Amino acid sequence: MPSWQDFQPFIVTGLALGGVYALSGVGMVVLYQATGVVYLAFGAVGAMGALIAWSLINAGAPGWAGWLVCVAFSAAVTLGYGTLFGPPLAKRDPLVKATATLGLLLVLFGVMDLLWTTSGGESRSITLPTDNSGFSVSGVQVDWTQVIGFGLGLAIAAATAVFLRYTKLGTAMRAMANDREITATLGVPVRRVEAAAWLGCGVLAGVAGILLADMVALDATTLTFLVIYTLAAALIARLRSIAFTFLAAIVIGLVQNLLTPISSVGNYNDMTPFVLAAVALLVFSRRSVVSRSREET
């Protein structure tokens, strides 16, 4: 068993990645509440945006310009998809909605494999200026990118919770989560509310793509399927609570990274989101069964 000092760097990394998973999860939860769509293409959109940013920066564009293009691309693709396919999918089953976004994931993944082939061992990376400075805590070096990852996740979660509770648009989104048709009959501009949710989710996908390309790797496969960690956090929160989404994402990030230095289980740390989500869903379903049995008695 590694010592406490061996675990400390992985705590920092886990908190940083957990923060990015959290801001991604918040985007998925808000979109689901407004449209009923589980956006499985979240990771692929961010990955392609990050690859476009990398190409622009390599061609001589300023770093900030590449990052803005990444966010703009992710927002445009997500909003365009929602505008085009959102209305036809509105009354379809949740499984159909999720499968439709899986189709977008496969299309984007195929385009990335065609344009940014990995053959030849080409190494790609996006390095943020905040990687080169930081501070030390108990002998552990913390860079500002890691601070931004955790802090941005916390800030996005808190701001979104306030937004959903105290603004007209947020109230409309929560109302649509309960009943879309009744909300429309009350005069709420449903299409505009849905467009705002798609746009916000796309912006967060671009931000997550840049941060994960720096923290993890600029690889189409890796970034595309990191959506699994985000989806696990959202499922643990039952696609409802912003606060629980944040907490679940932090736990997933910590557990995943704290398992890494343990030689006996370190190779299985990628199973973390599946295990935690399965345990959480089993616990919730058990509580639901118990509460129903009590009501019947």
The CATH topology name reads ABC transporter involved in vitamin B12 uptake, BtuC
Secondary-structure element series: HHHHEEHHHHHHHH
Report mean pLDDT, rounded to a whole number.
86
> Looking across the biggest beta sheet, what order are the strands in?
1-2
Rounded to an integer in angstroms, the radius of gyration calculated over CA atoms is 20 Å
CATH domain class name: Mainly Alpha
Oligomer designation: single chain
Could you explain the architecture of this structure?
- Helices cover 75% and strands 3% of the residues.
- By secondary structure, it is mainly alpha-helical.
- The protein has one domain (4-122, 138-296): Orthogonal Bundle (ABC transporter involved in vitamin B12 uptake, BtuC).
- It is globular and about 60 Å long.
- The N and C termini lie far apart (49 Å).
How would you summarize what this structure contains?
The chain is mostly helical.
Indicate the topology.
Elements (H helix, E strand, L loop, with lengths): L3 H32 L6 H17 L4 H27 L4 H22 L18 E4 L2 E4 H23 L1 H11 L1 H6 L4 H26 L4 H6 L1 H10 L5 H17 L13 H25 L1
Antiparallel strand pairs: 1-2
Helix pairs in contact: 1-5, 1-6, 1-8, 1-10, 1-11, 2-3, 2-4, 2-8, 3-8, 5-6, 5-11, 6-8, 10-11, 10-12
Keywords:
single chain, 297 residues, mainly alpha, ABC transporter involved in vitamin B12 uptake, BtuC, 12 helices, globular
